């Protein structure tokens, strides 16, 4: 795989990096860095997402950047091709007022340098009714969402971005861009700021390039994209039909296309999908909820990574494989950003340490094999290596079309008969809850098929658990004419055919041909 770039990055090289990307949140302060570096090398990691960055400011800023730089140096000693990503989040705190504004920041904004620190009140939104301001006693937490239409906020973003670039970071995650740009309609000021950051990297960056992303499906301004690639968390539906606290992922979102900042264009941009975090537990007492109530409280009462970390090792490996295959199937432009290190907050996990046999609480998920060098590791590194070793064979065999929001067949007619093709074809049955839909819903958008030309509709899904399931294909999303493999139409929902997945996490592809009414079901391991 090619990982060479300088000043600009090709789509091929960018996607190579994204295909070897992990979320390594806060790696700069890891207490098991020696073992972390071993895993990075053995797995073949090429992109360390969220390796540095702050939400609150628990330490002195210069100490933060010292540790960030040291991490970059140690990682690049292992592999100089690795991209480290830092975060410039949608949150500022009062402690920013301890930081002197460097002369180069003033000059970048066409201002005369002066001796002063950042001023939080000149960077926040002024309308407190928005809920964007959070008042705390602790200056390291008192603050809110910055208003990027205000110059002070822009200067803060520029300062942090450039400091990370100076530390050797070649990617920046810009947080929830749609929040802090609420007063910048059309994102004109935001685009200008990001251009300044890119220009700084062009002069000062390791390879004279910085990659920008954010939690967004994309920002396209007059055909030009604001970000190099996009990023988003997964969306889930609880799987109540299976015992325990299982869930399945559902198709959501779309990565906007246009002209990439690197000069190439695509209808759909590459993007990352990750297990997100927002505090760990989202309920005070999980035991006070019924199973059905808890199922719909985010991820069974947790944020995403905390739910994942609180599963058994076998279940974590199962869900990691499921997520990888799900991402491969559901969009050939998406890449699963494997969890490497992620904070668990209130969802910390109890366990026995591998070094001394004592009970302990682990506040971070770590992919590392549990050992004396990583006493509270979660032991997913071998599963991750196995998944990456499959490359994208499943994607090549059975992926859905890249244009997730376009089902096709809007104004398509059969060439021989002149009949207009249905715009909506749905496959339904007992399998639907296992892909995030309602059982036997013949009008479901989740299991709607894509038209791919030549009278052919198709949909690929991943079934997480082995079993035999029934199905039928409904034309127009109604039950007036449904089809199975024998091509004869039936009316009503009672007539079904069956398919079997011999193993967990198998991909299934449904195909339907209009006019002939042929239906096929294929399975892929």
Structural notes for this entry:
There is one protein chain. α5 runs parallel beside α7 (188-204). The protein has a 7-stranded mixed beta sheet with strand order 8-7-3-2-1-18-21. Strands 22, 25, 26 and 27 form a 4-stranded antiparallel beta sheet that branches. A 4-stranded antiparallel beta sheet has the order 23-24-28-29. With 525 residues, it is an alpha/beta fold. The chain contains 12 helices and 29 strands. Helices cover 24% and strands 23% of the residues.
Please report the number of helical segments.
12
Structural class category: alpha/beta
Assembly context of the chains: single chain
Radius of gyration: 25 Å
Helix content: 10-25%
Q: How would a crystallographer describe the biggest sheet?
A: 7 strands, mixed
Beta-strand portion reads 15-25%
- Total beta strand runs: 29
The residue ranges in which pLDDT falls below 50 over 5 or more consecutive positions are none
Give the overall pLDDT as a whole number.
96
Globally, the shape reads globular
Strand order of the largest sheet: 8-7-3-2-1-18-21
């Amino acid at each position: 795989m090619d990982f060479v770039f300088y000043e600009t990055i090709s789509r091929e090289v960018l996607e190579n990096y994204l295909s070897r990307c992990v979320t390594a949140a806060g790696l700069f302060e890891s207490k098991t860095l020696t073992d972390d570096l071993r895993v990075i090398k053995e797995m073949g990691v090429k992109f360390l997402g969220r390796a540095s960055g702050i939400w609150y400011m628990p330490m002195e800023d210069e100490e933060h950047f010292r540790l960030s730089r040291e991490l970059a140096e140690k990682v690049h000693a292992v592999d100089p091709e690795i991209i480290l990503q830092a975060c410039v989040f949608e949150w500022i705190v009062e402690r920013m007022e301890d930081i002197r504004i460097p002369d180069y920041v003033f000059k970048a904004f066409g201002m005369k340098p002066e001796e002063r620190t950042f001023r939080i009140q000149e960077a926040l939104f002024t309308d407190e009714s928005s809920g964007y301001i959070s008042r705390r006693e602790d200056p390291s937490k008192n603050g809110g969402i910055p208003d990027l239409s205000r110059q002070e906020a822009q200067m803060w973003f520029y300062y942090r971005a450039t400091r990370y670039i100076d530390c050797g970071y070649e990617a920046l995650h810009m947080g929830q861009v749609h929040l802090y740009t609420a007063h910048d309609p059309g994102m004109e000021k935001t685009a200008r700021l990001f251009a300044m950051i890119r220009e700084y990297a062009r002069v000062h960056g390791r390879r004279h390039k910085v990659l920008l992303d954010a939690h967004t499906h994309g920002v396209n301004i007059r055909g030009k994209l604001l970000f190099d690639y996009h990023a988003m968390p997964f969306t889930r539906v609880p799987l109540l039909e299976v015992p325990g606290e299982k869930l399945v992922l559902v198709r959501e979102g779309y990565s906007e296309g246009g002209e990439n900042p690197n000069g190439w264009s695509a209808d759909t941009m590459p993007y990352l999908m990750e297990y997100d975090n927002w505090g760990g537990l989202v309920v005070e007492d999980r035991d006070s909820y019924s199973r059905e109530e808890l199922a719909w409280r985010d991820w069974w009462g947790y944020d995403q990574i905390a739910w994942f970390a609180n599963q058994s090792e076998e279940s974590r490996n199962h869900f990691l494989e499921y997520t990888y295959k799900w991402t491969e199937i559901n969009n050939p432009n998406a890449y699963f950003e494997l969890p490497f290190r992620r904070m668990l907050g209130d969802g910390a996990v109890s366990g026995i340490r591998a070094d001394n046999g004592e009970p302990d609480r682990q506040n971070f998920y770590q992919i590392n094999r549990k050992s004396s060098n990583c006493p509270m590791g979660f032991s997913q590194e071998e599963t991750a290596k196995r998944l990456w070793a499959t490359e994208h064979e499943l994607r090549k065999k059975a992926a859905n079309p890249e244009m997730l929001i376009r089902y096709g067949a809007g104004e398509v007619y059969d060439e021989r008969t002149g009949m207009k093709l249905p715009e909506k074809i749905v496959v339904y049955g007992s399998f639907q809850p296992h892909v995030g839909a309602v059982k036997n819903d013949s009008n479901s958008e989740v299991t709607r098929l894509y038209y791919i030309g030549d009278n052919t509709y198709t949909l690929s899904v991943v079934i997480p658990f082995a079993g035999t399931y029934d199905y039928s294909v409904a034309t127009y999303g109604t039950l007036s004419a449904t089809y199975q493999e024998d091509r004869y139409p039936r009316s009503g929902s009672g007539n079904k055919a069956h398919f079997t997945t011999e193993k967990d996490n198998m991909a299934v592809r449904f195909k339907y041909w209009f006019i002939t009414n042929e239906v096929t079901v294929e399975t892929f391991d």
